[in-house]
Amino acid sequence: MEESLQHFASDVGIVCALEAGGKITPQEAYKQIKARWKELKKAKKALYPKDNKDPDDDKSGD
What is the pLDDT of residues 12-53, one digit of tens each? Predict the structure, then answer.
C-alpha cells in the first residue's frame, strides 16, 4: 500500500506541475487526479478486502 501511495503522490505532483505550467487545463488536472485516486482506492480494497465500508467512498457517480 505504501508503494501505491507514493506512486499516487508522485503522479499528483506531476499533474499539478503540468497544470501550473499551462500544459494542461485545471479541468484535465482534476480529471487525471480523480482517476489516480480511484486507482489508489482499488489498490487499498485489494489489500484490505474486509475494509470495504470506506467513509470516503464517492457515491455521487462523478
Answer: 999 999 999 999 999 999 999 999 999 999 999 998 887 656
How many whole angstroms separate alpha carbon 20 and alpha carbon 49? Answer: 37
> How many Cα atoms sit within 13 Å of 35 on the Cβ side?
8
Place of cell 508503494: 3
- Predicted structure pTM score: 0.74
Residues 28, 26: Cα–Cα separation, whole Å: 5
DSSP 33: H
